[in-house]
Specification:
The structure is a single chain. The protein has about 250 residues and is of the alpha/beta class. It has one domain: 3-Layer(aba) Sandwich (Undecaprenyl pyrophosphate synthetase), CATH 3.40.1180. It contains seven helices and six strands. Strands 3-4-2-1-5-6 form a six-stranded parallel beta sheet, sandwiched between helices. Helix 4 links the parallel strand 3 and strand 4. Helix 1 crosses helix 2, helix 2 packs parallel to helix 3 and helix 3 packs parallel to helix 4. Its EC number is 2.5.1.-. Catalyzes the condensation of isopentenyl diphosphate (IPP) with allylic pyrophosphates generating different type of terpenoids.
């Protein structure tokens, strides 16, 4: 990831969304199409992450949320999961200093209990070291599933109701949001999925109620700034009514 100067000129785009979320799909197909093992696709995908973080900061996006590893991904072959964990360790060790220097704040959402102790330590270090950064809020969803997130929020609220901390009548959408892992973040304005697939795959289900979707027919390792800008242009041409008539 290149060092980003605070003087970097933002490209003039018609309407830059405040929060962009991305389902990074297609690493395996990228590798298969080149006659390479899936692990090579994941390694190429890390380069796409670097490009996207850099471009997002330069374009003035405030929040970028990347779907890095889902709860369902644990079902993949053990060798592939092991390689993915190795890449995660490498990314955190190699990129943290650069992200911090570029004023990027890191936030991790998802169930950390299934990760090895050293990975949990690296995740905590990344969050702690960058907590005061302000240029770009980078959220990485790891061992994340939206249904599990909502279930956990409902369980916590039920506990509070049972203990008398809150009444049943006090359970509102705002209270549910306060118990989600994304508390304090704006909902995504734009969600991009690569590889041409058109589904949400258990990602930010609550938060995406009024999100605009763009499906890019490009495999994640090939995703670059031009694809991000094209998705933003697509977003800018839409009329967001949030259920109202304008």
């Amino acid at each position: 990831m290149a060092v980003l100067s605070s003087q970097t000129q933002q490209q003039e785009l018609p309407c830059v969304p405040r929060h962009v979320a991305i389902i990074m799909d297609g690493n395996g197909r990228w590798a298969r199409g080149r006659g390479k093992p899936r692990t090579m696709g994941h390694r190429a995908g890390v380069e796409a992450v670097r490009r996207t973080v850099e471009a997002s900061a330069e374009l003035g996006i405030e929040y970028l949320t990347l779907y890095g590893f889902s709860t369902e991904n644990w079902k993949r072959p053990e060798s592939e999961v092991s390689d993915l964990m190795g890449l995660l360790r490498l990314f955190l060790k190699r990129e943290l200093a650069t992200l911090h220097r570029n004023n990027v704040k890191i936030r991790i959402i998802g169930d950390r209990t299934r990760f090895a102790d050293d990975i949990r330590d690296l995740l905590a270090k990344a969050e702690d070291q960058t907590r005061d950064n302000t240029r770009l809020n980078l959220t990485i969803a790891l061992s994340y599933g939206a249904r599990a997130e909502i279930t956990q929020a409902v369980r916590e609220i039920a506990r509070k109701v049972a203990s008398g901390e809150v009444s049943a009548d006090a359970v509102t959408e705002d209270l549910i949001e306060q118990n989600l892992s994304t508390v304090g973040m704006p909902d995504p304005d734009l969600l991009i999925r690569t590889s041409g697939e058109q589904r949400i795959s258990n990602f930010l289900l609550w938060q995406s109620a009024y999100t605009e979707f763009v499906f890019e027919d490009v495999l994640w390792p090939d995703f670059d700034r031009s694809h991000l800008e094209r998705a933003i242009d697509n977003f800018a041409g839409r009329e967001r009514r949030f259920g109202a008539v304008i």
